[in-house]
Amino acid sequence: MNLADMLNFADIGQLTAIAGRYQCDCKRNSKHDLIQSILITLGSREFMESHIRECAPEELRFLNSLLFDERSQFSLEDLLAAARQASFDTDSGKNGGYREMVARFKNAGWLFRGASQQSRYLFRVPQDLKMRFRERMGECIKEQISPISEPAIYRSEGEMLPEDLLLFMRYIRENEPELNQEGAMHKRYQQGVMNAIQIPEPLLGKGGWKFGYGRACEHYPPRLALMVDYARHRRFTSEEGFRLRLTLAGETLLEQQKSEKLMQIYSFWLKLYKCAIPNLPSLIYWISVSAGKWVTVDSLVEGLGWLVKPFYYDNAASILEQRILRMLLHLGMIRLGETPQGPAVMMTPWGLEAAMPKQLN
Closest by alpha carbon to 285, among 113, 47, 123, 67? Predict the structure, then answer.
């Protein structure tokens, strides 16, 4: 439903609050006048631009989370959780602060209760406001991103990840690697995998990050960890008797030489990293909006860093550069190059397609 529809169902109390919020010049006892005045004010070109400019970062993150949420209706608890997440838990334990944020957006015409008996305790966001917020937010972010000419040399991995998944599984079939007490391949087998695939990585040293990015990230470098977790998830491998072996499903896939679809692996990766980066789909979308052509990585980090919640010792920059952009490269969604001004990035056609969430299509 759009704003006009929701205003028609709203009670005069909320309409009066919205009109007061924007200092609308109208008769406060006339529902028709209130609705028309609110529509004119919120429908103006200047409204969304000034609204975004005046919002605090946590308020923009709150709206951003609602824009990319697949649900069409939200309970009060859902909204409070979104407000808490958007505040990066700075007001931890102060639930009144989150309630105040939700109330502000209700009085600003962003949140409306359902009209039926079943939905009266659920809230919705007008579809046309969401679309206009998305467009203007994209423009604001792009204004901060620095374009750059195409690098002389750049890296693009295309379909190599699903191809390497098959090579990894072939290595498993031929070697049945031994597993240690923690369920990880011994280093000599890990090096054997690296020698067998197209895109090798340095093995993990001592220390480093040990959780938050999937089960296997504790033991393997990121790209291999994704393949190990994905093969386990799809039940292509088993870990019985301290050996990593192919299952019947894995044997069948290998015999057919049928690569997994990149979209399947990408969707799995989004779920795998959800714990550490809850708003990952929205970040990838804004990267796609910003990097349709070559841009500097530094400006991308600067323009999007405020949307990224640090995860323990991972700060916003390391999350964007190492956890997101590096993995988007492995997933064939970006090209990464070096320039005199530093690293540069551009989305691939497949990346632009995959980055568009279903609810924004």
Answer: 67
Q: Which long-range contacts (CB under 8 A, 24 or more apart) does 212-217 make?
A: 212/275, 212/276, 212/311, 212/312, 212/314, 213/272, 213/273, 213/276, 213/323, 214/272, 214/273, 216/184
Per-residue HEC secondary structure of 22-49 comes to CCCCCCCCCHHHHHHHHHHHHCCHHHHH
Tens digits of per-residue pLDDT, 305-322? 999 999 988 999 999 999
Q: What distance in Å separates the CA atoms of residue 59 and residue 79, rounded to the nearest whole number?
A: 12
How much of the chain, in percent, has pLDDT values that exceed 90?
Answer: 80
Q: Is 186 helix (H, G, I), strand (E, B) or coil?
A: coil
Each residue's pLDDT tens digit, 187-202: 999 999 999 999 999 9
291 contacts 337 by C-beta, under 8 angstroms: no
Q: Which CA distances in Å does 8 have to 104, 209, 266?
A: 20, 52, 41
- The amino acid sitting at 131 is M
Helix, strand, coil share of the chain (percent; to 5): 55, 10, 35
What does the DSSP 8-state code read for residue 71? -
What was the pLDDT predicted at 188? 97
- In this predicted model, what pLDDT tens digit does every residue of 61-78 receive, in sequence order? 999 999 999 898 999 999
Q: What is the residue-wise DSSP string for 155-180?
A: E--TTHHHHHHHHHHHHHHHH--BB-
